Write a sequence for this structure.
């Protein structure tokens, strides 16, 4: 099973072929246009199922499945955490998915100083606990930016995920600590290989899946950023369950 998360930086209808070349089974695509936009402008894009949430047709959060996999938005979904959606995945491997584009710039992004990811972990705790769950997407955060006594620190969110039995696939495979990542997922602001770059996209999987990871790759600058596709590169996780 291959899970891909990639912030496409909008206009996914012009970029979907690049995703398909990765041959995902499940794809989490932040900053994706709505299903209606894709139907009109990317008729050849034919996932087996598609879920989208957002406030503008141009920019939201998409989840797509391919091959033998299907996805359905869980009926526990609430729209007050921009943008996080609980999804049930059915196929050769059955599991829950919490897809994330942690948007910190919305009017309802923070409540009680907690951001959308942390609030979602509280809101969907039963959903996460009912069966194996993956939490994947653009968290827009890194422990480098943590501040003392701030409730929304990335390190705190990672600790909450670990309490739920989830492990970052990247950090497990690379044996790197949070904040010490050698492979960035965003080339921020000026999109140059030597400019500001950070690791802010993640795929957290159940801890007992880690022994079944067969491959993990992070996209390279030239294939995804240098050619103007996005300021993010994808994370691709293969799990042989």
């Amino acid at each position: 099973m291959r899970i891909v998360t990639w912030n496409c930086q909008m206009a996914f209808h012009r970029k979907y072929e690049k995703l398909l070349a990765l041959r995902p089974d499940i794809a989490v695509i932040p900053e994706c246009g709505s299903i209606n936009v894709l139907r009109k402008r990317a008729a050849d894009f034919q996932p087996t199922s598609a879920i989208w949430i957002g406030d503008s047709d141009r920019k939201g959060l998409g989840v797509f499945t391919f091959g033998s996999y299907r996805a359905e938005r869980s009926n526990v979904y609430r729209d007050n955490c921009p943008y996080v959606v609980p999804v049930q995945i059915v196929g050769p491997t059955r599991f829950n998915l919490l897809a994330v584009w942690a948007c910190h710039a919305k009017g309802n992004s923070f409540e009680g100083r907690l951001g959308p990811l942390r609030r979602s972990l509280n809101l969907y705790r039963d959903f996460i606990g009912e069966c194996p769950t993956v939490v994947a997407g653009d968290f827009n955060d890194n422990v480098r930016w943590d501040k003392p006594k701030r409730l929304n620190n990335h390190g705190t969110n990672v600790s909450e995920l670990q309490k739920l039995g989830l492990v970052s696939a990247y950090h497990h495979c690379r044996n790197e600590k949070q904040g010490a990542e050698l492979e960035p997922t965003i080339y921020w602001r000026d999109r140059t290989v030597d400019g500001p770059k950070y690791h802010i996209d993640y795929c957290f999987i159940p801890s007992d899946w880690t022994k079944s990871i067969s491959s993990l790759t992070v996209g390279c600058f030239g294939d995804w950023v240098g050619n103007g596709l996005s300021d993010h590169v994808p994370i691709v996780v293969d799990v042989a369950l």
Observations:
- Residues 2-239 form a domain with the Deoxyribonuclease I; Chain A fold (CATH 3.60.10.10).
- Residues 34 and 213 are 31 Å apart (CA to CA).
